[in-house]
Amino acid sequence: MRLLLTSCVLLASMIGAAKAAEPIEAVQLYTQDELVKLIRKNAHLQRIKDDDCQLVQDIAARASKMELPAYQFLYGDMLAYNVCVERDVELGVYYMRQAAEQGLAEALEQLGRYYDTGRLVQADKAMAIVYLREASAQGNLRAQMRLVKLYNQGYGSPQDYEDAYRWLFHSTVVDKATHKQISQQLAALGKKMPDSVVARARLPLDN
């Protein structure tokens, strides 16, 4: 009986050692386009976790040395939210800003949202509008909706209402609830503008 038990323990030990010796399958690094798609779905941080944090060094290098905006955004979020790296909010926001300065719409929208709500940074409506306007010009729907909402709340300059109205009016939206929300925001903003300006903002974009 003792011999059988010893044999079983030895066999289990050998199996465990064999499994430990098996090479870990390497995770392929994402392209910028793949990463942007993950960011738009808000799935980028979960993907890093699912990949067992294997890509941290590569991500950091592409953010700090190669200065790729999508990787700067990803690394910034990882630092800000303690995903596979030690939390460093200040450095995280720095990399978000680096991505925004390179024109990444998702980074511009996120910083605009953070300045609007006071998340990770001090609330600053004027700064929020700066970032949201840049993201809106690139067609980012979330930024467009938040920008119009801020204008309806009395922030920003009336000189910018027309552009914000035009961007949101010409957005393509499938979700009925979002479509209704947009219609309400546009109706409110339209009341702040002359009818002729509203009519001009509604003209086809190729005019």
In summary, what is this structure?
The protein is mainly α and 207 residues long. It has 12 helices and no strands.
Task: Provide a descriptive summary of the structure in words.
There is one protein chain. The protein has 207 residues and is an all-alpha fold. The protein has a domain at 30-102. The protein contains twelve helices and no strands. The N and C termini lie far apart (90 Å).
Give the radius of gyration: 24 Å
By DSSP, the count of extended strands is 0
First-residue to last-residue Cα separation: 90 Å
- Considering DSSP H and I runs of 4 or more, what fraction of the residues is helical? 55-70%
Mean pLDDT: 90
Structural class of the secondary elements? Answer: mainly alpha
Order of helices and strands: HHHHHHHHHHHH
What is the 3D shape? elongated
Strand content: under 5%
Uncertain regions: pLDDT < 50 for 5+ in a row?
Answer: 2-12
Biggest beta sheet summary: none
Number of helices: 12
